[in-house]
Design a protein that fits this description.
By secondary structure, the protein is of the alpha+beta class. It is 20% helix and 32% strand. The chain has two helices and 13 strands.
């Protein structure tokens, strides 16, 4: 009987966990290990990631945030960007998260943009600051840090729901470097763990959690006395 209770409890926890977040696509760059502008498929799901620079740029895959690889490039100018494309068909309540960091002379300020046609982009975050890859915010292949993480909840923007293609851009906002100077030709910026996921509405998650809890209570009511 006790083993049955454990199984039901684990099942209930699994149900709520499964519905807590669904990953549509995630780029960790461990498989792609970029050395060009791309495009690159995600390690989880389907989609395309690429880089764009108005001038010549060198792309590489140095250590990520707690992993062996990331997507990195130099020769940054205002308007240069990383782009991620994915289908949200059948999904709503989109959430995006990623890790990003720059070298001391890499770009400091970026804009986070989105589009449903790849041409006309809207601003999700008009300007956000990227830290310098230096102590205590240094990326390594072994230990992830939370200070370089970013996210945006698109659940209030229904235009991204159920779309054949959605585009996200991390675009260089100005010429200020991460150390407060001017972006240099050799200055780099790298991105890692770019994740597009779905988080259920609070009412849906509460219902699932409630049903899972009810299953455990019902078992105890019917079998608890016997097990005792």
């Amino acid at each position: 009987m006790k083993s049955t209770l454990v199984a039901i409890t684990l099942l209930a926890a699994g149900v709520t966990s499964a519905f807590a977040q669904t990953t549509i696509a995630k780029w960790t760059f461990e498989t792609s290990a970029p050395i060009t502008a791309g495009s690159f498929a995600p390690e989880i799901g389907l989609g395309l990631a690429s880089g764009f620079h108005a001038g010549a740029s060198t792309y590489s895959s140095p250590a990520g945030n707690g992993s062996a690889h990331s997507f990195s490039s130099n020769t940054w100018a205002i308007g240069d960007y990383y782009q991620f494309q994915v289908s949200t068909a059948g999904y709503s309540n989109i959430n995006v998260s990623w890790d990003q960091i720059s070298s001391n002379t890499g770009p400091k300020d970026f804009s986070f943009l989105y589009s449903t046609d790849g041409v006309n982009f809207n601003s999700a975050i008009s300007s956000y600051t990227v830290l310098a890859n230096a102590t205590p915010n240094t990326w390594s292949s072994t230990t992830p840090i939370s200070s370089s993480g970013y996210s945006f909840d698109f659940s209030g923007i229904p235009a991204l729901n159920n779309q054949a293609a959605v585009y996200f851009r991390l675009r260089d906002f100005d010429a200020i470097s991460a150390n407060g100077g001017t972006v240099a030709t050799g200055g780099t910026d790298r991105v890692d763990n770019f994740t597009i996921s779905v988080i259920p509405e609070p009412a849906t998650y509460a219902l699932l959690a409630g049903l899972a809890g009810f299953a455990v209570v019902l078992w105890r009511r019917n079998f608890g006395a016997v097990a005792a």
